[in-house]
From TrEMBL:
Keyword set includes Transmembrane: no
GO MF, one example: DNA binding
Compartments (UniProt record): Cytoplasm, Nucleoid
Family in the record: Belongs to the histone-like protein H-NS family.
Pfam family for this entry, one: Histone_HNS
GO cellular component: nucleoid
Name of the featured protein: DNA-binding protein H-NS
Stored InterPro entries: H-NS_C_dom, H-NS_C_dom_sf
Keywords carried by this UniProt record: Cytoplasm, DNA-binding
Start and end residues of each DNA-binding protein H-NS-like C-terminal domain: 77-121
Length: 121
């Protein structure tokens, strides 16, 4: 009974394919037409966007150098905050915040037998 239902479903699917009248050649032609339409639309939208940018540049008297040279007015560029040192070499004054990879000076001292706690601030 189940096999008969599966055969019946397969039969209906194959009928659908033959009834659709879409051949591979037809579908490829449709895809080519859509690809051409997509390219035209993309070009038109791009041209419109470029024109909007030019209009804004003219309205505000901006140059290309203005676009890349300065931050927007009123915005402050944050300086990276400095993190306090957690480890310091008393001999050289070198320090490490404990973030990122261990510095070479600390690795060398640990390999020489020192404990990381010896350098804690």
């Amino acid at each position: 009974m189940i096999a008969a239902n599966m055969f019946s479903n397969t039969l209906h699917q194959s009928e659908f394919v033959s009834d659709s009248h879409n051949t591979l050649k037809d579908l490829l032609a449709q895809r080519a037409a859509l690809d051409a339409q997509i390219a035209q639309t993309k070009e038109a939208e791009l041209s419109g966007a470029i024109q909007q940018v030019r209009d804004l540049m003219a309205r505000y008297d901006l140059t290309i150098a203005d676009l890349s040279a300065r931050a927007p007015r009123g915005s402050k560029i944050k300086e990276p905050s400095k993190v306090a040192a957690k480890y310091r070499d008393k001999e050289t004054g070198a320090s490490w915040s404990g973030r990122g990879l261990k510095p070479k000076w600390l690795k060398a001292k640990i390999e020489a037998g020192a404990k990381i706690d010896d350098f804690a601030v």
